[in-house]
Amino acid sequence: MTTPTRLNTLIIGSGASGLAAAVFLHRLGVKDIAIYTDGLQRGTSLNAGSDKQTYYKLGLYGAEPDAPVLMAKDLSAGGAMHGDIALIEAAASPLTFANLVHLDVPFPHDEFGQYIGYKTDHDPKRRATSCGPYTSREMCLSLTAEAKRLNIPIQENRIAVELLTDKGRCRTTGAIFINTAQSAQGGQCFEIVQAENIIFATGGPGGMYADSVYPVQHTGSIGLAFEIGAQAANLAESQFGLASTNFRWNVSGSYMQVLPRFISVDDQGVTREFLRDYFPSLPDLLNAVFLKGYQWPFAAGHVPGSSLIDIFVYVESIERGRQVFLDYRSDPPDFDFNALNQETRDYLTKSGAHLGKTPLQRLAALNAPAISLYHDHGIDLATEPLPIAICAQHNNGGLAADLNWESTNLKHFFPIGEVSGTHGVTRPGGSALNSGQVGAWRAAQAIALKYQEKTINDEDFLAQAKESHQRFSKPRPATPPAPSDWREDRLILQQRMSRAGAFVRTKEKAVQARDEARKQFIAIKNYDLTALTDAVAIAETIRNRQFCLAQVYYLTAIIEQIEKIGSRGGAIVIDPENGAHIHPALPPHWRLKPENTAWRQKVMLCQPDGDGNPVITWQDCRPVPTTDGWFETVWKNFRETRRSL
To answer: In the prediction, which pLDDT does 644 show?
Structure first.
């Protein structure tokens, strides 16, 4: 076992939130820090986006009134979100947005310095802004440059394989990594880090799904936290949406608003426009496709409505076994622009796209970079249709955190970014990017004010680290050797989650999948890892184990949602016996179990019992705080308590 590296704060993950936390810590005087990542180029923040990737913050343009409490109420309006966390995300949004502007992230503004906004989903005001398709990439590039300017150590090729705690599992004390650039011979690839604090910024659970718009190289590591008993919140609440599959990208906004054709192809090459089966006329069909651009993520609240299109795609692809495509090359022969409704015509006309004779021509007028993006990845929308599926896109739930983004049951452990479960049932588009920056700021403040002193006993830590390291490196002759190719196990678990834990849910499938995940977890846990000679294979095998454990947690939460809540947020529950008919042209088993709204003002918590099995409990949502302060009083309290949060 190598000699441990000792730090005040270990940042795991190099996405926008992890990088921001490192920069904020350094500015606050906490400089004994390091970022550990499997690669600066590998995260979701750097490689994901949409036609116009949104950043959500307090309104900063024109005469439209806005205030932190108003934004907090909109953030938490979907339910299952604590109002005080929403208020913090709203109040701190101008500060963290200004930090990004200071770092030259190119958010658009006018000559007076007003930062223009637009309305996004679940947004009654114009708080959204964007740098284009790659807003989060621009954030990462600027934050990385700042971290390097500050000489913050960044250790790449490191995959976290275990989090370490004290004996009572009351706090975290460090982590074990595999350095994939090192040889696995004699355990040389294992590295130990002792840290007073861990900022856990590992992103969403993209590696759990086969149908996923997360970048291929992004996997997520929430299973590491479940292994040490971290409490989770709202795991059943995720977002899914239409995305291209040959290049993983959300086909939202402009990609829908230019009215592409939805076609499917069977294994004999026979093509058909399947959406015509569900609409009384072509204009009705096209108006629904246009609306899908505004309401891109699947939403149970839009059934009936724009989210019917996701269901129709699911039936065509999953139940009928046909490959579904978007076709931008031509309009249907009976296309008539003047037959579209007023909203569709006005939008395309005002955008200068109404003269286009094909969806591609309209897209070129409306959003030319959306075409270039696919061209840059070897896809020519002018000559080939675009394969699509309904893909996992974002997890609104995650690890439970307090007002400083510190774990609710593990001290010194700060989950930030998508791995933090601060969101509720729904959220305004782009609010996740803001939440990651605000969480980074609050966590950095908390560490700077409370956790700069050394409190870990070195001998106790070494004993714990040695015990954990031996579980990985000690031969286990009585157990089966780990297979040399970890990809087979990965594919099995990913297909299972897309089948049972995506946007169409049934209790039977969820229970079966949870039981299968538990069996696979036990099997992988018993592998003899010393049979592997490649560091990457060891790390990915351990990841498979963590994915299976995470699936047990997520599917347990989904089963609870199916039984008590029904259809809400990003998923519907199918109840063939007692549910309501969704659409007359759908097969008869497509009956929707409605939402039991009594659970809207509760947060679903998940935590292991003494045997390690996840147990669900419920917590009432805390309201948005009523703030009617008087300056002199607030100023006095600030002067007296400014050293604590």
So the answer is: 54
Average pLDDT over residues 601-625: 96
d(CA 249, CA 238): 17
CA angle, corner 165, sides to 234 and 84, nearest 5? 35
C-alpha R_g of the chain: 25
240-392 has which fold? Flavocytochrome C3; Chain A, domain 1 (3.90.700)
Residues ≥6 apart with Cβ < 8 Å to 462: 4
Contacts of 56 (CB under 8 A, 6+ apart): 93, 120, 123, 127, 128, 428, 429, 430, 431, 433, 434
Q: How far apart are CA 328 and CA 644, in angstroms?
A: 56
Instruction: Name the pTM for this structure.
Output: 0.95
Q: How many CA atoms lie within 13 A of 644 on its CB side?
A: 3
Interatomic CA distance for residues 622 and 624, integer angstroms: 7
C-alpha torsion sign, points 144, 399, 498, 583:
negative
CA distance 2 to 453: 24
Q: pLDDT tier at 645 (50, 70, 90 boundaries)?
A: low
- Mean pLDDT in the chain? 94
Residue 50, pLDDT above cutoff 80: no
> How big is the chain, counted in residues?
645
Look at strands 413-415 and 190-200 and give their pairing: parallel
Query: In the structure encoding, which two tokens stand for residue 338, read together?
Result: 């003047």
Scanning the structure block, which residue is given the tokens 């970022």?
35
- pLDDT confidence bin for 571, thresholds 50/70/90: very high
Taken in order 561, 563, 568, 570, the sign of the CA dihedral is positive
Q: Which band of pLDDT confidence, cut at 50, 70 and 90, is reported for residue 84?
A: very high
Q: How deeply is 318 buried, as exposed, middle or buried, from its count of CB atoms within 10 A (0-12, 13-18, 19+)?
A: middle
What's CA 403's distance to the chain center, in Å?
Answer: 20
C-alpha–C-alpha distance, residues 15 and 20, integer Å: 8
**Dist. CA 171–CA 228, nearest whole Å:** 10
> Distance (Å, rounded) from C-alpha 312 to C-alpha 485?
36
**336-387 tens-digit pLDDT:** 999 999 999 999 999 999 999 999 999 999 989 899 999 999 999 999 999 9
Q: pLDDT value at position 185?
A: 83
Distance CA 493, CA 210 (A): 8
Looking at 94-226, which runs of residues are DSSP E strands? 128-130, 154-155, 158-165, 172-179, 190-200
H helix intervals, 279-422:
282-294, 308-314, 342-350, 359-376
Both structure tokens of 510 = 């969820």
